[in-house]
Amino acid sequence: MGKILVVGGGMAGWMTVLYLNKFFPQYKTTIIESKKIKTIGVGEGTTPNFITFLNSVGIDPNDFESKVNSSKKIGINFKNFNKINTNYLHDFDILGNVNSYALHFDSKQALTYLKKYALTKNISHILGEFENYNTDNYDLIFDCTGLNRTILKQSWTDCSEHLPFNAAIPFTIGETKDKTRTISTATDKGWIWEIPLWSRMGSGYVF
Predict the structure, then answer these.
(1) What are the 10-residue block averages of pLDDT along the chain, 207 residues in total?
(2) Which end of the chain has fewer CB atoms < 10 Å from its terminal CB, N or C?
């Protein structure tokens, strides 16, 4: 049996290892989760493809939604991107998607859910640091460590000089009445995201 290693215990890591376990059962899958890296956990907005993913790996979207402080997302409201006091509603039901909705969720709770589900499968979980682990016997390694780039540091191409925005401040605010759309609001120095959960609003400023 071949072996695949996933490095990174965030959303990307657990989604990757679940997908590999489901569709490549001929490989033994292992995930390494760092003790040092913490989850930001402000709030996450998805596209309808996420519902397809849940179904594909055997997760009931309704069960997932009920346990991660989730709200259904029908689209995105872009405010002030053309000019001040304008809205553009980018709704999924007009795009011909098989699933016409997505989800907003608490990323910490979602991570806990995916991890708990994955550990019921034939997946090995290592809590530790990649640098301390022998990876010679793996056929394929996935780097899911985000900006840490644990494996890909040598092959990374820095394109930051071409980006208009290079920083973000995540935070939470109170509840909102409209829980059906992610809100993106343009400002003179960047843009603000608002992701409505049932108990609070996950938000942040990109600048």
Answers:
(1) 92 96 96 80 82 96 92 93 88 72 92 96 91 85 82 73 88 79 93 89 91
(2) N
